[in-house]
Amino acid sequence: MDVFDSDGHEQVVFCQDRDTGLKAIIGIYSTALGPALGGTRFYPYESEEAALADVLKLSRGMAYKNAMAGLDLGGGKAVIWGDPAKLKSEALLRAYGRFVDSLRGRYYTACDVGTYVQDMDVVARETRYATGRSVEHGGAGDSSVLTAWGVFQGMRAAAEHTWGAPSLAGRTVGVAGLGKVGKYLAGHLLDDGATVVATDVNESALAWASATHPQIELVADTDTLIASDIDVYAPCALGGALNDDTVPVLRARVVTGGANNQLAHSGISKLLEDRGILYTPDYVVNAGGVIQVADEIHGFNFERAKLRATGIFETTRRLLQLAVDEGVPPAVAADRLAERRMAEVGRLRSIYLG
């Protein structure tokens, strides 16, 4: 992969510490709106090329997410290549923290797949540019709490747009993934009066659902879920959930979920529209987590952060109306709004120096 011919990233940093086994890549897509903020994904990629492709895609997505959330932050992301169950250690995380610190504030890191608030506490021992920390260490705690709340708000806006009322009461929602975000989202949906059908590859997640919310109907796998008679599909696991195989058999009228990069390629947006399926862009509705960790940078206040995450309802509502007015899919409308903000505000800032 030619990094210079990718999506125009400002900076890509390869980090290696042989003693701890650390192999990490930090991608900074844009600092036009401020320092780049995005989580660290710890994942056993098949190859270095796969890790690089993911960090480039994810960091670009964070730039658009932060812009649409109205934050004065750019977009960045990091990946640590390896199996966290085997490789993660205090020494490795601290080595990674030193690499983050070397960027002198151009990149703030936080949690993502494979990393947790306790990991950010360790990273923060080497850098002040780590957020998403535990409450015991002055942080906000689990960012998936407000991620799920924001997804729920986006889903309410999509329900209003589709059925005329901002509620999921009486609707059947299929949740793919009952991990960090999916489990909280399921709770909000049940409280709102929805019927929840769900699946997860992790047996412990299924056991949690059975014990905590026995009213959730559990199905064997995602293929079964998307082909079921559901009103809303909520992808809450890894990316690429909407692809050339899944969209043709999807029975839901609405797609709103917490996963990043849900569209396998740009043509999926048009395919969804042709099938009459309303897709709320993932980086718009799942911005609650980044709103939470961004608030932590300046001294965390949960009520203030939750109020801002609640605003995802209005953001989604305006976005869906803009898509109608301009005759484009919501994903295209969202990109236009994000790019406009980065261009207009970014002219005042240029490259952030830290």
List the helices and strands and how they pair.
Elements: E1 11-17, E2 22-30, E3 36-43, H1 48-68, E4 74-81, H2 84-87, H3 90-102, E5 107-111, H4 117-123, H5 144-163, E6 172-176, H6 182-191, E7 195-199, H7 203-212, E8 217-218, H8 222-226, E9 232-235, E10 254-255, H9 267-274, E11 278-279, H10 282-285, H11 288-297, H12 302-310, H13 312-326, H14 330-346
Parallel strand pairs: 3-4, 3-5, 6-7, 6-9, 7-8, 9-10, 10-11
Antiparallel strand pairs: 1-2, 2-4
Helix pairs in contact: 1-14, 3-4, 5-6, 5-11, 5-12, 5-13, 11-12, 13-14
Family: Belongs to the Glu/Leu/Phe/Val dehydrogenases family.
Protein name: Valine dehydrogenase (NAD+)
Domain Glutamate/phenylalanine/leucine/valine/L-tryptophan dehydrogenase C-terminal: 141-350
